[in-house]
């Protein structure tokens, strides 16, 4: 990584973390907080786990299972959730800048109040996902609206409405 890219990454991470803490991220002194930053967790089973406030920054978690996991307030920046199972996961308030969610299963997931700028959702299943108040790139929203359907069973918010899709 050249110096300019490294500076850009760390500057973005510092700014993003500051924004994330300012909007109510978790307190850093949590007992159950595990740091998966820069690790390879591909294929791991995190289903139903309490991962609230953890960090998966720049982690490789392709094909991992997070079904029903609590990832609220987690840092996912620059991670690869390629084909990950995030069905029914709580992703409320995550900082997911530049994350690859391509091919992921986000069925009935809650991404409310998430920051997911420069993230991609190519071929992700978003049926019943709730993106209310999430910050997403306009282009990604337009792509997501093309396949948005369903209603989140927890929040009772239609996926299309949560994305602000035009009918």
Automatic annotation (TrEMBL):
Pfam families membership: Pentapeptide (PF00805)
InterPro entries from the UniProt entry: 5peptide_repeat, At2g44920-like
Stored PANTHER family: THYLAKOID LUMENAL 15 KDA PROTEIN 1, CHLOROPLASTIC
Name recorded for this polypeptide: Pentapeptide repeat-containing protein
Native organism taxonomy: Bacteria, Bacillati, Cyanobacteriota, Cyanophyceae, Nodosilineales
């Amino acid at each position: 990584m050249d110096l300019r890219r490294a500076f850009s990454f760390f500057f973005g991470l510092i700014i993003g973390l500051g924004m994330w803490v300012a909007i109510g991220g978790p307190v850093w002194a949590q007992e159950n907080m595990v740091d998966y930053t820069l690790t390879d967790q591909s294929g791991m089973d995190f289903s139903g786990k309490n991962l609230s406030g953890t960090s998966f920054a720049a982690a490789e978690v392709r094909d991992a299972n997070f079904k029903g996991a609590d990832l609220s307030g987690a840092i996912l920046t620059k991670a690869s959730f390629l084909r990950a199972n995030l069905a029914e996961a709580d992703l409320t308030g995550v900082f997911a800048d530049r994350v690859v969610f391509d091919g992921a299963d986000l069925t009935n997931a809650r991404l409310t109040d998430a920051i997911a700028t420069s993230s991609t959702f190519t071929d992700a299943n978003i049926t019943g996902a709730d993106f209310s108040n999430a910050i997403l790139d306009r282009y990604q929203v337009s792509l997501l609206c093309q396949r948005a359907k369903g209603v989140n069973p927890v929040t009772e918010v239609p996926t299309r409405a949560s994305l602000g899709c035009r009918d």
